[in-house]
Write a structure and sequence with these properties.
The chain has about 210 residues and is α/β, with parallel strands linked by helices. It is about 40% helix and about 10% strand. The chain is built from nine helices and seven strands, in the order ααββββααααααβββα. Strands 1-7-6-5-2 form a five-stranded mixed beta sheet, with helices on one face. It has a two-stranded antiparallel ribbon with strand order 3-4. Helix 7 crosses helix 9 and helix 8 packs across helix 9. The longest helix has 18 residues. The relative contact order is 0.20.
């Protein structure tokens, strides 16, 4: 089987309850472990947090966000941002060469607009984006046990929520003292904390082959 077929097989055999992850939830702001800016106590849980490298198959990247964004694309996809026509044309290489997580996210916007993201990324049958996110979070934990790992453990039994102004899918938007949204990232972090922490520390990953094409 090819790489994509292997990935789809891993997804099929996964225990993740995708519908539960995508279901909208409400969390009291004072009853959860939330993060939004660098000043927040749980900021290290964000994919935008600095000094949180990930290592996979010979790659050493500055952040989990880089690997997540890179896994959207085939290795030969090219697209140049209008704001930087002299940039590296290969989208994945440009993402991986980024110095910061936010830059890795922003530098691929032209490829999203041009519809160059892999076809199965948001396909309801596969939801590669969700499985890929868990994959990079596990790698982040394995590589950063004394920073990311300790902060993750410090959340105790609280629900974890990424507070967001715009994104009600990965996080929750604040309204009347509540954070409302699917909060998929927060739920995956909770799964990582409660169900997979010791397995990952022992190098037993949910998706050993990952989702980088």
């Amino acid at each position: 089987m090819g790489k994509i077929e292997d990935q789809h097989s891993a997804i099929k055999n996964s225990s993740l309850d995708i519908e539960k992850l995508k279901a909208k939830e409400s969390y009291g702001v004072n009853e959860c472990a939330w993060f939004f800016t660098k000043e927040d106590s749980y900021w290290e849980l964000s994919n935008m947090a600095g000094a949180m490298p990930v290592i996979f198959d010979g790659f050493r990247l500055n952040s989990s966000e880089q690997l997540y964004q890179a896994s959207k694309y085939a290795p030969d996809v090219e697209c140049l941002p209008q704001s930087n026509p002299g940039a590296e044309p290969n989208v994945r290489k440009r993402i991986m060469d980024s110095k910061a997580a936010r830059g890795a996210k922003m530098t691929q916007k032209c490829a999203v607009k041009a519809k160059l993201v892999r076809d199965d990324w948001e396909d309801d049958r596969f939801e590669v984006r969700i499985h890929s996110m868990l994959w990079v979070l596990e790698l982040k934990l394995w590589a950063n046990p004394r920073t990311f790992g300790e902060v993750l453990k410090s959340t105790g039994n609280l629900p974890i929520v990424e507070k967001s102004k715009k994104d009600g899918f990965w996080g929750g938007k604040e309204k009347d003292g509540m954070l409302v949204g699917s909060n998929v990232l927060g739920k995956l972090l909770t799964i990582l904390r409660d169900e997979k922490y010791d397995k990952v520390r022992n190098r037993k990953f949910t998706y050993p082959e990952g989702f980088l094409l």
